[in-house]
Amino acid sequence: MKLMTPILGITGSDNTGVSGIQADIKTITALGGYALTAVTSVTVQDSHGISSIMDLPLNMVVGQVKAIVNEHRPKAIKVGMVRDVDTICALRHEIVGCPRIVLVPSILNSHGKQLMSQPAINAWKQELIPEATLIQLRCHEAEILLNCRIGSDDSMEDAAKRLIDMGAKSVLLRGGHQVAGRLTALLHHDGESRFFSSQNTEGWQKHGVSGALSTAIASRLAFGDNIPMAIAHAHDYMHSQVVYAVESKVQRLRMADIYNRFMTLIAEHYREAHDVAYYASRLAITSRYLSQITATVVGKSPKQIIADYVIQESITLLATSRLTIGEISNKLGFSSQALFSKFFSTHEGCSPIEYRSHL
User: Does the global pTM surpass 0.90?
Assistant: First the structure.
């Protein structure tokens, strides 16, 4: 009989079963792994959030991890909520030998409340992040961790590079809100950045999504995937089990999936491609069918969606950077500054120079 792959989840308990160690067990088991656990804290929570947290003593947390690592030799470890400074420091010595470590610091809960003290955040930076195969953070958490503002795709890249400088091998930043009604994620791996985008802001912000996604990634790494493949497989699982779990019509689910792939392609290629045919070709569908999909999902044409994306990036660069209008034009893939100015004026009713002067 083939033994199942052992995967260790180290995090807090969620009595609702939606996140925490309970969700880790569900996710690892659903993906075909053998779920091993170490509980770091016990919470009292309901649909309104966490009302109380009790962190377990250092010896209890480390004792659980040591016992599992010595006996089962997990192929991957996911580390979630650990808030005690001494426990964080001691934990590093127990997991450092594992070749695949996924970190998802629970700096904020799903309602935006900070769960971790500054000394604990510092301990994560010094002890755990340097050991990370992958660190997964929401942008608001990265802002606290790095003491910076993340307000554009470029600043997401800068934040990811700073985390790489701390020792993490790869970084997945989630929850960028650079365009209203859209969520952006960034994977920085092997010196390259790749953006993902989704219109399903409600689905991707559900309670428990962050923890389940990181556990799914750790599971796929344990099965032998590389980082990009692990994330791709984890996203497929999240789409079917969590993010679009409420969808009942197969055709609508397919449209939502294609739409999100369309948005991801825009996030990756908006700087060099503004035409609908390019994206339809990449999706292996006709431009007409892409128009049907976007009209059904968001009530807009593909051309409008591309233009909205480029406009919002233009506004972000005009507001937050010192780039000249010509440099912004080049960065966004326009053949001339005049063409960019005409495009911007058509959509915003003023030139880029006028817009910047009004700020």
Answer: no
